[in-house]
Amino acid sequence: MLKKLLLAVAGTLATMTFAFAQVDVNKADQAALDSVKGIGPAKSKAILEERGKGEFKDWSDFEKRVKGIGGKNAVKLSEAGLQVNGKARDGAAAKTPETKPAGAKSADMKSAETKSAEAKKDVVKK
């Protein structure tokens, strides 16, 4: 039981770290590209096919060669952690960790607490 718990915690931490990592289109594999919010399997495949013809020189080259990537989409992808040759796209907001006031809880945390409380009530009723 303890091993399963430790494995679950380790997996969660690894996933969280991977989700916030910067991903360079000229170095990433399909799984890494898929991890960027806004890129799915079809788009990552298209990126890899175009990269097979030669590395992307810059964001402009990336936008021209990959169908469906325009200026607005490129900014969003850059903000989500995508890079071309180690550089974010001009106009993209710098990605910084969210900071919240002490004691503030995210909607996910509140939802989890609500579910936990409901589960406890179910156990008590039984």
TrEMBL record:
Domain of life: Bacteria
Biased amino acid composition, Basic and acidic residues: 107-126
Pfam families from the UniProt entry: HHH_3
Region (Disordered): 86-126
Signal sequence residues: 1-21
Keywords, in A-Z order: Signal
Name of the protein described by the UniProt record: Competence protein ComEA
Organism: Pseudoduganella lurida
